[in-house]
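Q: Convert this sequence to structure tokens.
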Amino acid sequence: MTYAFLFLTYDNIILNFKSDNIYIHPKYPDKVKKEHKKYIIKNLINPTEWCNFSIVKATINLLKESFNNKSNKWFFILSQDSFPLYNNYIEKFEQLHNNKSIFSFRNKYEDYYKTSQWWVLNRDDAEIIINTELKYEHRFTKRIKDGCADEYYFLSVLMWENPKYKYTNLRIMYDKWLEHTIQKSPAFFNRLLKEDFDYIDKNKCLFIRKIIDDFKLDRYITKRKLYVIYIETETNKDNIIFNNKFDFMLMISIDINKIKKEIVKRSIYIFNIIHKFYYETILNICYEKFISNWDLVIFTSEKFNMNNYNYIDKVKKYLPYNKFQFKNGKLQNKKFYFLIDGGDLPSYIAKIV
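A:
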């Protein structure tokens, strides 16, 4: 028995799998490294677009080519930045699947079943998806409420083909979204905290996505203080000062590849946010369990000068954070202050008590 790893990518993959049984559907095949070109499948969908049925077609083409190898019994759909959370992830997988395909079910809309786009199919279910390739495409000509075609298609087809269809409901892919605000993408990981490992263990995740080049899988031991630095187009990156007494995270509204690697590699998480939701993102981060690892958190604004940290004791004006309503209630046990630098540019202080 072999396991087929199917990658939907822009270009290259982070290759860390104990397998050479890899299939890649790249958006930009010319940018794929020479050593990875052998994994590119023959039939590419060009172009593919986010939240478009073209992603479903690309995924089916990955299934079709990998299905031709009759020894492939399980088919994993993964992103280019997927990384196994265990050295023995196949052994872990064998303990979980119960001979059924794995989906992470989200919700149902009419008779459409929404899941995470990251799943594992057994060979029987892969065959059904391949054989019904054109049968249900007409049902996805319009975008479905609160989701994309690739989130709805695969489990829905299997349920439409067999109303008594059974699967294993697990979240095999770990990624981090802030629950109460809108982001451009999940957070990037450079390190993992205790809360990450708690979630991974509880949900039996096998892979993690959105890792950066310096990612380390071991648990990071935090310091007492944290800087959350906001980087936008007008941020003076030369004003970003690293102090060994602080940990660092980033909130960014620009391409991560435009940020100095020194800054990126010093960060635990990197939140890819939308500028207009900057304030809500601050509050949302303070709502997360992981923030209690620090006694003091400083959130910088786009133009803030980090040299002015000493102003913390001079300006203590409360932010109206209790007016911001989360689904599960208001923030508790947090004290917020303005921090003003010499140019009257604000930053925010959170004392975690």
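DSSP finds seven helices and 18 strands in the chain.
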